[in-house]
């Protein structure tokens, strides 16, 4: 009988400077999620270092999904999105903008920069938790992602 190797762990990079929002995301995914491996950076500079495996992140795994806030110190989410999608080695990583802004210009600009989805963070804790789990389930179970093998 042929044995299958286990599916590749689902690696998620959370880029958000709001510790409370990060905690909600982590709690939602640990309680209701798929057992993803979560990595957190608090700003855009850290995000690009993680993605490019530089400095303290030289041993970082390549994430299968990036959850990206727009408004952060040092380098904004818009700048990260633009830089990531212009990099041939990183452009195929799906990026979900997960932010408090529901401004039309932010939504349009994010899609112009090739965000894969734009989600406004719900104010209600349970709704926020549900949105995060839906994102993870879609990208972790439904979507086929480059570089990720999973058993169906």
From TrEMBL:
Gene3D superfamilies assigned: 3.40.50.2300
Modified residues (4-aspartylphosphate): 69
Entries under InterPro entries matching the protein: CheY-like_superfamily, Sig_transdc_resp-reg_receiver, TCS_response_regulator
Superkingdom assignment: Bacteria
Biological process annotations from GO: phosphorelay signal transduction system
Residue stretches making up the Response regulatory domain: 11-136
UniProt keyword terms in alphabetical order: Phosphoprotein
One Pfam short name: Response_reg
UniProt name for this protein: Response regulator
Organism, as annotated: Cryptosporangium phraense
